[in-house]
Amino acid sequence: MMRIAVFVSGGGTNLQAIIDKITSGEIKNTEIALVFSNNKSAYALERAKAAGIETRSLSAKKFNDRDEYYDRVVEIVDAYDVDLIVLAGCLMYIPPRLIEKYRGRIINIHPSLIPSFCGKGYYGLTVHEKALERGVKVTGATVHFVDEKLDNGPIILQKAVEIQEGDTPELLQRRVMEQAEWVILPKAIDLIAAGKVKICENKVIITEA
Ligand code: GRF
Question: What is the atom index within ligand 1 of the atom nearest the CA of 42?
């Protein structure tokens, strides 16, 4: 059974998709051992509690020393003995020490087709505003491994979503979540739990075997 920790910061719709697909059996051989947030008010924590999942939250604001905060976050995660960390709507800076310790075992969902509309400043609604501003005809979402650079690690899955006439950033964000994020993040977790995801020369190979 693969044990996962899910990092959240906001509404938790991606977390809910993971919870629902574990319940439905679409995600196999996986249990959520911990939902962690840097924001104690994140509604995602309520979703976890409603599902009977252990939650922890810790804000950096409580610490004068950032390093002390990051050490504490690592300690919390280590205590749950997880195989994979899933960043799901997570707006928290992931410290290099966590990336190093869990290299190749942290994944993130980004609401665009990386390498478009990603990197510093590209999160949440801004991503969709920029996509509409640029006039792209297709956008989507990406699940990738996390490394020290923002939105930079090997890409696991992507799913395209067409821009529609009259799209606003809000309408587009919702469609990307519904049609892409909530599909490929659970799928990526299921593939990893099944041992079907390998990284070779910094590229992801998915074996159907
Ligand atoms: C989503 O667009 C996700 O891609 C981004 O944060 C937004 C909210 O995610 N990272 P959630 O509802 O908290 O899962």
Answer: 13
Q: Which residue has the tokens 């976050």?
A: 73
pLDDT 10s digits, 130-154: 999 999 999 999 999 999 999 999 9
pLDDT digits (tens, 9 = 90+) for 97-122: 999 999 999 999 999 999 999 999 99
What confidence tier does 159 reach under pLDDT thresholds 50, 70, 90? very high
Alpha carbon 140 to its chain's center: 14
Selection from 120, 92, 115, 109 nearest residue 177 by Cα: 109
Pairing assessment for the beta strands 55-57 and 30-37 based on DSSP bridges: parallel
SS3 call for 95: coil
Catalytic-labelled residue, pool 21, 47, 110, 159? 110
| 109 in contact with ligand 1, CB cutoff 6 A | yes
Q: Distance between alpha carbon 143 and the CA centroid of its chain, in Å?
A: 7
Q: Is the CB of 88 under 6 A from ligand 1?
A: yes
Q: What is the pTM of this model?
A: 0.97
Burial class (CB in 10 A: 0-12, 13-18, 19+), 138: exposed
CB-ligand 1 contact for 89 (6 Å cutoff): yes
| CA 177 – ligand 1 centroid, Å | 7
